[in-house]
Structure of 3-oxo-5-alpha-steroid 4-dehydrogenase:
Amino acid sequence: MDLVNLLLINAGVVAGCMVCLWLLSLWLKDASIVDLFWGFGFVVISWVSLLNAAAPTTAAWVTTILVTIWGCRLAGYLSWRNIGHGEDSRYTEMRKKPGRNFALFSLVVIFGLQGTIMWIVSLPLQVIPTLDASFSTLTPFGLMLWLVGLSFESIGDYQLARFKGNPQNRGKVLDQGLWHYTRHPNYFGDFLVWCGYYVLAISFDASAWWTIIGPALMTFCLLWFSGVAHLEKRIQTRRPEYADYIRRTSSFFPWPPAPKEDSASVTTHSHSPTS
Protein backbone atom coordinates (compact mmCIF):
# COMPACT_ATOMS: atom_id res chain seq x y z
CA MET A 1 0.00 0.00 0.00
CA ASP A 2 1.30 3.47 -0.86
CA LEU A 3 1.94 6.02 1.86
CA VAL A 4 -0.91 8.38 0.93
CA ASN A 5 -3.54 5.66 1.27
CA LEU A 6 -2.00 4.48 4.53
CA LEU A 7 -2.08 8.01 5.96
CA LEU A 8 -5.75 8.32 4.97
CA ILE A 9 -6.59 4.97 6.56
CA ASN A 10 -4.89 5.96 9.78
CA ALA A 11 -6.65 9.33 9.75
CA GLY A 12 -9.95 7.48 9.51
CA VAL A 13 -9.00 5.06 12.29
CA VAL A 14 -7.96 7.90 14.59
CA ALA A 15 -11.12 9.87 13.81
CA GLY A 16 -13.27 6.81 14.52
CA CYS A 17 -11.52 6.15 17.82
CA MET A 18 -11.89 9.76 18.91
CA VAL A 19 -15.58 9.90 18.05
CA CYS A 20 -16.19 6.71 20.04
CA LEU A 21 -14.23 8.13 22.98
CA TRP A 22 -16.18 11.38 22.71
CA LEU A 23 -19.51 9.53 22.85
CA LEU A 24 -18.29 7.56 25.85
CA SER A 25 -17.19 10.80 27.54
CA LEU A 26 -20.69 12.24 27.12
CA TRP A 27 -22.16 9.20 28.83
CA LEU A 28 -19.57 9.21 31.61
CA LYS A 29 -19.52 13.01 31.86
CA ASP A 30 -15.74 12.75 31.89
CA ALA A 31 -13.74 14.27 29.03
CA SER A 32 -10.43 13.35 30.65
CA ILE A 33 -10.71 9.78 29.31
CA VAL A 34 -9.09 11.24 26.19
CA ASP A 35 -5.79 11.35 28.08
CA LEU A 36 -5.94 7.62 28.82
CA PHE A 37 -6.06 6.88 25.08
CA TRP A 38 -3.04 9.00 24.18
CA GLY A 39 -0.34 6.34 24.52
CA PHE A 40 -2.52 3.49 23.27
CA GLY A 41 -3.56 5.52 20.24
CA PHE A 42 -0.02 5.32 18.88
CA VAL A 43 -0.08 1.56 19.39
CA VAL A 44 -3.22 1.37 17.26
CA ILE A 45 -1.67 3.54 14.53
CA SER A 46 1.52 1.47 14.50
CA TRP A 47 -0.29 -1.86 14.16
CA VAL A 48 -2.67 -0.54 11.50
CA SER A 49 0.35 0.69 9.55
CA LEU A 50 2.19 -2.61 9.96
CA LEU A 51 -0.76 -4.81 9.02
CA ASN A 52 -1.50 -2.74 5.92
CA ALA A 53 2.09 -2.91 4.68
CA ALA A 54 2.64 -5.07 1.62
CA ALA A 55 5.60 -6.90 3.13
CA PRO A 56 6.53 -5.74 6.65
CA THR A 57 10.26 -5.79 7.27
CA THR A 58 12.03 -6.83 10.45
CA ALA A 59 12.71 -3.14 11.08
CA ALA A 60 8.98 -2.39 10.89
CA TRP A 61 8.16 -5.21 13.31
CA VAL A 62 10.82 -4.06 15.77
CA THR A 63 9.54 -0.47 15.69
CA THR A 64 5.95 -1.58 16.22
CA ILE A 65 6.97 -3.68 19.22
CA LEU A 66 8.84 -0.70 20.70
CA VAL A 67 5.77 1.51 20.25
CA THR A 68 3.58 -1.16 21.85
CA ILE A 69 5.83 -1.35 24.91
CA TRP A 70 5.97 2.44 25.28
CA GLY A 71 2.28 3.09 24.58
CA CYS A 72 0.88 0.32 26.77
CA ARG A 73 3.09 1.37 29.69
CA LEU A 74 1.93 4.96 29.41
CA ALA A 75 -1.74 4.05 29.00
CA GLY A 76 -1.53 1.66 31.92
CA TYR A 77 0.14 4.19 34.17
CA LEU A 78 -2.32 6.98 33.38
CA SER A 79 -5.26 4.60 33.85
CA TRP A 80 -3.92 3.47 37.23
CA ARG A 81 -3.36 7.09 38.26
CA ASN A 82 -6.61 8.64 37.00
CA ILE A 83 -9.42 6.05 36.98
CA GLY A 84 -11.70 6.45 39.97
CA HIS A 85 -10.68 10.04 40.66
CA GLY A 86 -13.31 11.74 38.52
CA GLU A 87 -12.82 14.18 35.68
CA ASP A 88 -9.56 16.11 35.57
CA SER A 89 -10.00 19.65 36.89
CA ARG A 90 -8.85 21.16 33.58
CA TYR A 91 -11.84 19.74 31.77
CA THR A 92 -14.20 20.51 34.63
CA GLU A 93 -13.18 24.17 34.39
CA MET A 94 -13.91 24.13 30.66
CA ARG A 95 -17.42 22.85 31.36
CA LYS A 96 -18.18 25.76 33.66
CA LYS A 97 -17.61 28.51 31.09
CA PRO A 98 -21.00 30.08 30.28
CA GLY A 99 -22.46 30.16 26.78
CA ARG A 100 -20.53 27.10 25.64
CA ASN A 101 -21.98 23.94 24.13
CA PHE A 102 -19.48 21.70 25.86
CA ALA A 103 -20.43 18.57 23.94
CA LEU A 104 -19.58 20.18 20.60
CA PHE A 105 -16.63 22.04 22.10
CA SER A 106 -15.11 18.84 23.48
CA LEU A 107 -15.57 17.01 20.17
CA VAL A 108 -13.62 19.67 18.27
CA VAL A 109 -11.15 21.19 20.74
CA ILE A 110 -10.43 18.24 23.03
CA PHE A 111 -10.95 15.01 21.07
CA GLY A 112 -10.52 16.41 17.57
CA LEU A 113 -7.39 18.37 18.39
CA GLN A 114 -5.77 15.50 20.26
CA GLY A 115 -6.54 13.11 17.42
CA THR A 116 -5.02 15.50 14.87
CA ILE A 117 -1.87 15.94 16.94
CA MET A 118 -1.61 12.17 17.39
CA TRP A 119 -1.84 11.58 13.63
CA ILE A 120 0.85 14.17 12.84
CA VAL A 121 3.22 13.16 15.64
CA SER A 122 3.03 9.53 14.51
CA LEU A 123 4.30 10.26 10.98
CA PRO A 124 7.62 8.39 11.52
CA LEU A 125 5.68 5.36 12.76
CA GLN A 126 3.35 5.42 9.76
CA VAL A 127 6.18 5.76 7.26
CA ILE A 128 8.47 2.99 8.55
CA PRO A 129 6.28 0.05 7.40
CA THR A 130 6.19 1.49 3.86
CA LEU A 131 9.98 1.57 3.58
CA ASP A 132 12.18 -1.11 2.13
CA ALA A 133 13.88 -0.86 5.48
CA SER A 134 16.99 -2.48 6.84
CA PHE A 135 19.15 -1.78 9.87
CA SER A 136 22.07 0.64 9.50
CA THR A 137 24.87 2.04 11.63
CA LEU A 138 22.47 4.77 12.82
CA THR A 139 19.88 2.28 14.10
CA PRO A 140 21.59 1.58 17.48
CA PHE A 141 21.56 5.32 18.22
CA GLY A 142 17.79 5.44 17.67
CA LEU A 143 17.33 2.41 19.92
CA MET A 144 19.49 4.03 22.60
CA LEU A 145 17.43 7.24 22.52
CA TRP A 146 14.24 5.21 22.85
CA LEU A 147 15.58 3.18 25.77
CA VAL A 148 16.91 6.19 27.69
CA GLY A 149 13.65 8.05 27.06
CA LEU A 150 11.51 5.14 28.24
CA SER A 151 13.69 4.84 31.34
CA PHE A 152 13.30 8.54 32.18
CA GLU A 153 9.52 8.33 31.79
CA SER A 154 9.11 5.11 33.74
CA ILE A 155 11.50 5.94 36.59
CA GLY A 156 10.20 9.51 36.85
CA ASP A 157 6.59 8.32 37.06
CA TYR A 158 7.50 5.69 39.65
CA GLN A 159 9.40 8.17 41.81
CA LEU A 160 6.55 10.68 41.71
CA ALA A 161 3.90 8.06 42.49
CA ARG A 162 5.91 6.72 45.43
CA PHE A 163 6.55 10.23 46.74
CA LYS A 164 2.89 11.24 46.52
CA GLY A 165 1.84 7.98 48.14
CA ASN A 166 3.61 8.96 51.37
CA PRO A 167 1.35 11.23 53.50
CA GLN A 168 4.44 12.73 55.15
CA ASN A 169 5.37 14.35 51.83
CA ARG A 170 2.19 16.41 51.58
CA GLY A 171 3.11 20.02 50.81
CA LYS A 172 6.69 19.12 49.89
CA VAL A 173 8.49 19.09 46.56
CA LEU A 174 10.00 16.00 45.03
CA ASP A 175 13.57 17.03 44.34
CA GLN A 176 15.27 13.65 44.58
CA GLY A 177 16.12 11.07 41.96
CA LEU A 178 15.54 12.26 38.41
CA TRP A 179 13.49 15.17 39.78
CA HIS A 180 16.71 16.52 41.29
CA TYR A 181 18.05 17.26 37.80
CA THR A 182 14.94 18.20 35.82
CA ARG A 183 11.48 19.38 36.83
CA HIS A 184 9.93 17.24 34.10
CA PRO A 185 11.77 13.92 33.63
CA ASN A 186 8.63 12.40 32.11
CA TYR A 187 8.39 15.10 29.45
CA PHE A 188 12.11 14.86 28.75
CA GLY A 189 11.77 11.10 28.41
CA ASP A 190 8.88 11.54 25.98
CA PHE A 191 11.05 13.87 23.93
CA LEU A 192 13.83 11.29 23.72
CA VAL A 193 11.42 8.50 22.79
CA TRP A 194 10.10 10.44 19.80
CA CYS A 195 13.59 11.47 18.77
CA GLY A 196 14.40 7.77 18.86
CA TYR A 197 11.51 6.88 16.54
CA TYR A 198 12.63 9.56 14.09
CA VAL A 199 16.25 8.42 14.13
CA LEU A 200 15.05 4.86 13.51
CA ALA A 201 13.01 6.04 10.51
CA ILE A 202 15.92 7.83 8.85
CA SER A 203 18.30 5.02 9.76
CA PHE A 204 16.09 2.64 7.78
CA ASP A 205 15.74 5.02 4.82
CA ALA A 206 17.06 8.59 4.55
CA SER A 207 14.01 9.53 2.42
CA ALA A 208 11.99 9.59 5.66
CA TRP A 209 13.76 12.82 6.73
CA TRP A 210 10.57 14.86 6.32
CA THR A 211 8.83 12.97 9.15
CA ILE A 212 10.72 15.23 11.55
CA ILE A 213 7.42 17.13 11.54
CA GLY A 214 6.18 14.55 14.04
CA PRO A 215 8.80 14.83 16.80
CA ALA A 216 9.03 18.60 16.19
CA LEU A 217 5.31 18.95 16.95
CA MET A 218 5.65 16.74 20.00
CA THR A 219 8.54 18.85 21.29
CA PHE A 220 6.51 22.03 20.74
CA CYS A 221 3.61 20.56 22.71
CA LEU A 222 5.84 19.36 25.53
CA LEU A 223 7.64 22.67 25.94
CA TRP A 224 5.20 25.42 25.02
CA PHE A 225 1.68 24.34 24.07
CA SER A 226 0.41 22.07 26.81
CA GLY A 227 3.42 20.75 28.67
CA VAL A 228 6.01 22.61 30.72
CA ALA A 229 4.80 26.19 30.19
CA HIS A 230 1.11 25.39 30.67
CA LEU A 231 1.62 23.19 33.70
CA GLU A 232 3.97 25.49 35.56
CA LYS A 233 1.71 28.48 35.01
CA ARG A 234 -1.05 26.59 36.82
CA ILE A 235 1.29 25.51 39.61
CA GLN A 236 2.67 28.97 40.36
CA THR A 237 -0.76 30.59 40.59
CA ARG A 238 -1.80 28.28 43.42
CA ARG A 239 1.56 27.32 44.97
CA PRO A 240 4.00 30.24 45.26
CA GLU A 241 6.50 28.00 47.09
CA TYR A 242 7.12 26.18 43.84
CA ALA A 243 9.07 29.21 42.60
CA ASP A 244 12.27 28.18 44.35
CA TYR A 245 12.17 24.72 42.79
CA ILE A 246 11.87 26.46 39.42
CA ARG A 247 14.78 28.75 40.30
CA ARG A 248 17.21 25.99 41.16
CA THR A 249 16.17 23.08 38.92
CA SER A 250 16.44 22.73 35.15
CA SER A 251 13.08 22.94 33.43
CA PHE A 252 13.56 20.22 30.82
CA PHE A 253 17.06 18.96 30.08
CA PRO A 254 18.74 17.28 33.09
CA TRP A 255 21.34 19.47 34.76
CA PRO A 256 22.89 19.78 38.24
CA PRO A 257 20.66 22.04 40.34
CA ALA A 258 21.52 25.32 42.03
CA PRO A 259 21.80 25.40 45.84
CA LYS A 260 18.52 24.87 47.69
CA GLU A 261 17.01 27.75 49.64
CA ASP A 262 13.37 27.04 50.45
CA SER A 263 11.04 24.07 50.22
CA ALA A 264 8.37 23.92 47.51
CA SER A 265 5.25 22.03 46.77
CA VAL A 266 4.93 18.89 44.69
CA THR A 267 2.59 18.67 41.74
CA THR A 268 1.22 16.09 39.33
CA HIS A 269 2.20 15.67 35.72
CA SER A 270 0.34 14.48 32.62
CA HIS A 271 1.85 13.13 29.45
CA SER A 272 -0.96 14.13 27.13
CA PRO A 273 -0.12 17.05 24.82
CA THR A 274 -3.49 18.67 25.44
CA SER A 275 -3.07 18.49 29.20
Notes: Residues 262-269 have pLDDT under 50 and may be disordered. Residues 3-248 form one domain. The two ends are 35 Å apart (CA to CA).
